[in-house]
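Below is how a single chain appears once it has passed through the pipeline. First comes the sequence as given, then the structure the pipeline wrote out for it. We keep one example in the README because the format questions we get most often are answered faster by looking than by reading.
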Amino acid sequence: MQGNFLPDSVDKSVLQTKLSHHPPGGTQMDPSRSLAPLYVLALTGIGLAGFATFRSLDRAGPAPVEPGIGSRADTDLTTTLEDLRAGQQRFETGLDRIRDRLSELELQVSSRTELGGPSDASGQRGATGDGAAPDAPKALTPEQQERREKEFRDLLGRVFQYGNPASEDEQARFWKLARETGMLDDAIKELADAVEQNPNDPDRRMELASAYVAKLLTVPDGPERGIYGMKAMRQWGAILEKDPNHWESQYSIAFSYSQYPEFMNMTPKAIEGFEKARAIQERSSTQKDGWAETYVQLGLLYKKQDKLDKAIEILTEGNRRFPKNERIQDLLNQVRGG
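Resulting structure:
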């Protein structure tokens, strides 16, 4: 995919590598056939955000232990996590106040950029040639603001939608609005309120998760990313509690786990998640082309674990169900030849 649509805070060299190669196995990805490239990048960001949260935990308390062991370390870890969550809540509250003020200022700047006065030769908007005071910047009319908000919400739904129907220009426009206005924060608040009022609406939860992912990609690297990553994960998890057959949320969780750093040993959880997604697919009476990616991801992860027989089994089944999918065929040939 061409263009530079991600926020400046994102390490683009890392994300470009993520886009052009599947991390578990290093197999070349053709973005035109991949599952919503920007959505994949967003989920990659959640994996990196989880790493940031892990590093904060590592600095704050004892080293993590495997869950379910029942040792004193488990109790200590639980206490540490509770303290961290309380601290994160205070941190979020302070950030929300700062963001509200920043959003107001950013909206003013954006309004001047779009509808401000004339520019002089130096490029400074609003300056006049005779040194006279510049004209006051024009504010957006209520109709213009309403149109822009509607445009942003539509783009939010389509940039992260399964299949990624948004064009490159639309993606660029979305990230510009997400960075330079307070509309993303407004959308998060509105969607969070909508979910609170109707917690059984999976579409609103998916949209809220997408908004959290977008927010994750507009903040600097660090613990704040972990906060938004976990918020998105909670939305997907809540959907699955009500509907265990919700494929998109199950796939999203599994892919997020697959992006964690190797030393965190999330590969088993990623495989478990993708196997659940595969079970959902294979129970369905319909079949969607994008579901082929589940077999690719499982094949890569089993190959990563040197479970070649299992990888061949999964990819052979995927090839039977999606005989025209070149990614499945290419990976199957690699595993057989390996």
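The radius of gyration is 23 Å.

See the next section for the split statistics.
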